Every structure is written in structure tokens, then in C-alpha cells.
Amino acid sequence: MISVIGIGPSREDMSIRALNAIKNCEVIIAYKAYIKPIEDLLDGKEIIKKGMGDEIERAEIAIQKSREGKNVAIISSGDPGVFGMGNVIFQLIGKYSDIEVEVIPGVTAATFAASKLGAPLHDFAVISLSDILTPLSEIKRKVEFASKGDFVIAIYNPKSKTRKEPFNEAYRVLLENKKPSTPVGIVKSGDNGVDTTVTTLGELKNHEINMSTTVIIGNSMTYVQDGYMITPRGYMIRSDIHPLSKEFYEHFLEGEIVEGPNLECEYYPCHEEGQSCTFCYCPFYPCGDSSTGGKWIKDKGVWSCQDCTWIHEDKVVKCILEKFPEIVKEVDDLKKRKKDLLKLRRECIQRVG
């Protein structure tokens, strides 16, 4: 039996299943740096250490030892199926007819980094910038389409002292497809622990990044609050319709609205000069999503739209009006069909910003 074991980013993050598999094996095969976190589990075992770049040799030795009837553990940091030894083993076992393999997952760098940053992951892509085995053209294409698809992107192996071109090219592609203000999290592991930084895509190149760094780049809805990086999933916060909002939408549904700036309103401009007043009362309230500038008034349980001007932008109004009449046919639909309204909100954020 060959157990391909992911030990995560540190001993504290190892699973019980991984610990038990290591205890039960007879032979340990690993890159030198992966031995230290598990040294106390290795008494009486045959230890085979190999350097970086010896992945094929490690896998062949594991297969040989297994065919001799021994229980073998081949160790990966993080998860063995994510840029780890799992792929190497399965690429080779087709040569043999008598090999049994199990994969024991571990905490991978993307989820570990995310846990340090807050909650930045929603739909996301994991891309390695190492061009040792992958053409640079392929890396650039993956970054481009992940960016255009508005995925959150976790970057592995961003750059080393001698390998900087993939990072520079990926960064250029990212700036072509994402706003410079897009939140970015940098999680760097070292001898003194883990350093975490939250910055923006525009400022990313001003930070020190190396092979021990995982970079998480947000999508169009990612925001930063209290130092945490958050990508909302769109959960619905239930709320009654405010009487003034109800009155407004009764007139709205009768076609009695002022499109664009309402210069006759005594409160104009309640946000900024030139604002569209088509949706005087936000149909998504309370969205509970700070990606457009709203926020909770702490300890009051009240959602504030004071810093959100998104609903008053002409391009946003145009986008919303394309589907709003299909969703809201009577005022109570603002409450009954709020999930559909929040999906419309997400669609318009992703389409027009």
C-alpha cells in the first residue's frame, strides 16, 4: 500500500487520518523539508529523503517498496492532489498491475491562506506560476480567463529569486482584467510564523513575495472590513419593507417615477451631484453586503447606505431595469422575491461594476 499523505502547512493543521497513516507505515519518503514536522512519528521507520526536483524518483522508490510488501507513506506539504505528489504517483502506476494507492488529503495553501485573511473565497481558481513544467503561455491564458470569469484567484509559487517573469506577466494580465482597487491578500510563511497583509492589486508589486507566499486576489464583489478580506456569497437578510419605501414603489410600479436626477426633490443630492434618483429607495435593502459601500452601524443592527452610491449610477440603473419588472410586479415582491433581487444585484455588479 502507498499512502500519499498531505500534512498541511504545519503540524498543527494535520488531520487525524494523516497522523494515523504515518504511524502505521513502515517506509517514509519525502522532500527533506517535510520530515521535520513529523520527526517524532518516525521512530523505527525507514526514512528516504530526496531533494526538490526528485519527484519521479521518489514515486518510483515508493512503488518499489510497496511491491516488496511494505506500507509506504509518501509525504506532501499541503494537499497531495494540489501541485503535490498525488499527480506524480498516479501518472506512474499505469506501468504496474499490483499497486494499491490511497490519497489522504491535507489543508492546502489556498484554504490555509484564506483562513488567515477572513473569508475571501467564493468560486475560485488556483493557479501556480511555476513555469518549470508549464509553458508561460499556458499560465498567462489561465490567469486571463480566471480574471475574465471574475473568479477569486489563489496564486501558488508566485516568484523566486531567479524566476520573476511569470509573476510579472501574470500581474500585467490581472491589471488588464481587474480593477487596481481589487483587494488582495498576501500570506507568507517563514521560520518566525505566518505574516498576513491585505492590500490592493494596484499595490501588489510593492510587497515582498517569494515561493513561501500565497496570494489571493479578490473578485468584483470582494471587500475589506475591519482588516478582513471578504467575498460575499449573497445570503439574504430578511427585513420588513419600510413604509416610505413601500409608498415609493407603489408609485414606481404605476410608472410615476423620475428617471435620472430628481432636481425637484428637497433632499437632492442625497449622495452626489448628478446622481440617478430612479431608485430613490434601494430595492435590495438591506443587502448586508459591503462590496458597494454599505455597512452595519455597529451594535445598532441597522444597515447604512450612506457610503453606497452604486444604485444611483446610470449604468447600474440601466442594468437593473432590464430584469426588475420581471421580478417585482407588486410591492410585496420586494420581500417575497428578495433572493431573485439579490441575484440581479450580483449580476449587475459583475457586469457593470
From TrEMBL:
* Gene3D superfamilies noted in UniProt: Cobalt-precorrin-4 Transmethylase, Domain 1, Methyltransferase, Cobalt-precorrin-4 Transmethylase, Domain 2
The name on file for this protein is Precorrin-3B C(17)-methyltransferase
Task: Describe the location of the Tetrapyrrole methylase domain by residue ranges.
Answer: 1-189
Pathway(s) of this molecule? Cofactor biosynthesis; adenosylcobalamin biosynthesis
> Where is the Cysteine-rich small domain positioned along the sequence?
259-333
**Example GO BP:** cobalamin biosynthetic process
A Pfam family assignment:
TP_methylase
Record's keyword annotation contains DNA repair: no
